[in-house]
Automatic annotation (TrEMBL):
<protein>
    <submittedName>
        <fullName>ATP-dependent DNA helicase RecG</fullName>
        <ecNumber>3.6.4.12</ecNumber>
    </submittedName>
</protein>
<dbReference type="GO" id="GO:0016787">
    <property type="term" value="F:hydrolase activity"/>
</dbReference>
<feature type="domain" description="Schlafen AlbA-2">
    <location>
        <begin position="23"/>
        <end position="143"/>
    </location>
</feature>
<dbReference type="Pfam" id="PF04326">
    <property type="entry name" value="SLFN_AlbA_2"/>
</dbReference>
<keyword id="KW-0378">Hydrolase</keyword>
<dbReference type="InterPro" id="IPR038461">
    <property type="entry name" value="Schlafen_AlbA_2_dom_sf"/>
</dbReference>
<keyword id="KW-0067">ATP-binding</keyword>
<keyword id="KW-0547">Nucleotide-binding</keyword>
<dbReference type="GO" id="GO:0003678">
    <property type="term" value="F:DNA helicase activity"/>
</dbReference>
<dbReference type="InterPro" id="IPR007421">
    <property type="entry name" value="Schlafen_AlbA_2_dom"/>
</dbReference>
<keyword id="KW-0347">Helicase</keyword>
Amino acid sequence: MKNKSEIMTIIQQLDYHIADDFEAQDLDFKQWNFSSEEENINKMIKYAVCMANGGGGSVVFGVADKVRGIDNVLIGVPFDVDIKELEKRVFENTDPHIIPSFEELFYKDHSIRLLVMNVLPETPPYTTTNGTATIRQGKECLPYRNNS
């Protein structure tokens, strides 16, 4: 899992790199879909399960992929998105329940808001409430196969 300082250092490098260059076992970047809050929540649920099963990690929402130049990369997340509601939705839609923590990062004099979802590893395996399980392996979320 990355702390705010580490993530801010990575973001400063996005003038010359794409976000994907920094994705790893414990870090992913996702663009926010401004036309579908439900799609964003479903993505958070999916990545909470993936990261929890893969040892924990951070997902930064509001960052465009495969784009260089910090002005093009930092798309942001709407200011009216309620962190408590996001935590509640992830909790309700994971089994066993995952309680992510969210942190806000602000750029350009607080005109751009990014959300960092941190997920701790506790007692995998985790699934969505519909039974889907993935696990983080490198930069990917792959189907989880419980070998016990």
